[in-house]
Amino acid sequence: MQHYSPYEIIEGNPAKGLVLLADHAMNRLPAEYGRLGLPESAFERHIAYDIGIEPLTRQLSVALEAPAVLGCFSRLLIDPNRGEDDPTLIMKISDGAIVPGNHPIADEEWQHRIERFHRPYHGAVSETIARTAAAGGRAPLVISLHSFTPSWKGIARPWHASVLWDNDPRAVFPLMERLQADGEIVVGNNEPYDGALRGDTMYRHCMTPGIAHALIEVRQDLIADTAGVAAWAERLAPILAELNDLPELHVYQRHPSRTGAYEN
Fold first, then answer.
1. Structural domain contains residue 59
2. Which of 68, 129, 141, 238 has its CA at a distance of 20 to 30 angstroms from the CA of residue 9?
3. CATH number for 49
4. 29 close to 35: Cβ distance less than 8 angstroms
5. What is the rounded distance in angstroms from the CA atom of residue 181 to the CA atom of residue 159?
6. Continuous H helices in the chain
7. 108-129, pLDDT tens digit by residue?
8. For residues 159 and 187, is the Cβ–Cβ distance under 8 A?
9. Keyword Secreted: yes or no (predicted)?
């Protein structure tokens, strides 16, 4: 049986001090899961992955020489951007689609997916962040890349991109300032989602240790083809390079989370 890795690490140049993350980069499933009882068309939808984010992350990684970690399994199998104790870690229904392979699901299978996919992905994120910190001799800057649907429940979303965050503004404010200076795009602030989610990737790897970070959401119709991805890579690369040059974003500084007190 062919080995299935739950993550891909793009090595980049860790001395640059910048790490890119793409939790929902791919819509793949290991062969033993089939299609989780869903039609093939479900895996072309946002319920399976973040459309456009894999090629966008790859282009930004090359342009910025930044290490990147990509999730290599569909969020329908297990969501890497949720804490292990989050009830939505494995979705039984996603945007109206019942997932037969997840409902019902035995406790043993739930735990197996955590150990086989979720933990190795986060282990790769931890290792890449640690390697980048060691190479640069300073705290890295972490940027997480996601995409969102153009509309939800029939209501159009006006934002071209959005920045999600919890309570550490260090990277967020200069990022939003530069995006808004573009003049051609509408930028959301914690829209259409709130960036404060206890146990998610940013909480675990950035908020808890005090690493400056931001989560960028790009509207999916804008990066659904090669030209769109190239345009957004060209837009974001110089902005992220400018952010990475700010010394104040390479200092460990823990901010209180809006989700409550840290456990340690």
1. yes
2. 238
3. 3.40.630.40
4. yes
5. 15
6. 53-64, 107-113, 119-136, 172-180, 201-202, 226-244
7. 999 999 999 999 999 999 999 9
8. yes
9. no
